[in-house]
Amino acid sequence: MKSVTDSFVSLGHWPSAGGFGFNTDILATNPINLSVVLGVLIYFGKGVLNDLLDNRKQRILSTIRNSEELRKGAIEQLEKARARLRKVETEANEYRVNGYSEIEREKENLINATCDSLERLENYKNETLHFEQQRAINQVRQRVFQQALQGALGTLNSCLNSELHFRTISTNIGILGAMEE
């Protein structure tokens, strides 16, 4: 401490030689120089520093306000996107349900159409079988009739002699003649 006070005293006391000199004692002159520089800086730089700090504060507040507005806008867009997503999911579920219902309807229609076709084919088959049975029965009847007729003609031809043949013809002619009158 004594050295600090000595430096103040030495400033007030000039050497008798009358010259101006520099005090090279760093420990003695540094606190004084620093206090002078800080005093000048604080006195003159306070306004500039306050302006710089105020500008910086205003920019930070402005950036915070802009960030808040952007955040609110992003939240609104997010809510809109979520609502749109819910709507699309609902529509997708409806399409899925409707699609499954449509598939089931088409499946039932296809099954019904197939059953109808099978029923028609069964009816056609039965009609064809009935027709073929009737045709076979008719063919058998015709053959039986032809065979019976051939057998009867053969029996008649073998049993009839000329005289019996002549009488049968005469009787038939008489019947025909009686019918004409």
UniProtKB/TrEMBL annotation:
Residues in coiled coil: 64-98
Keywords (A to Z) from UniProt: ATP synthesis, CF(0), Chloroplast, Coiled coil, Hydrogen ion transport, Ion transport, Membrane, Plastid, Thylakoid, Transmembrane, Transmembrane helix, Transport
A single cellular component GO annotation: chloroplast thylakoid membrane
Transmembrane portions of the chain: 32-49
Main subcellular localisation: membrane
Cell location: Membrane; Plastid, Chloroplast thylakoid membrane
GO molecular function: proton-transporting ATP synthase activity, rotational mechanism
Record's bilayer topology term: Single-pass membrane protein
Stored Pfam families: ATP-synt_B
Further details from the record: In plastids the F-type ATPase is also known as CF(1)CF(0).
HAMAP family assigned to the protein according to its UniProt record, in alphabetical order: ATP_synth_b_bprime (MF_01398)
Similarity section: Belongs to the ATPase B chain family.
Function, as annotated: Component of the F(0) channel, it forms part of the peripheral stalk, linking F(1) to F(0).
Quaternary structure note: F-type ATPases have 2 components, F(1) - the catalytic core - and F(0) - the membrane proton channel. F(1) has five subunits: alpha(3), beta(3), gamma(1), delta(1), epsilon(1). F(0) has four main subunits: a(1), b(1), b'(1) and c(10-14). The alpha and beta chains form an alternating ring which encloses part of the gamma chain. F(1) is attached to F(0) by a central stalk formed by the gamma and epsilon chains, while a peripheral stalk is formed by the delta, b and b' chains.
Full protein name: ATP synthase subunit b, chloroplastic
Organism: Anubias heterophylla
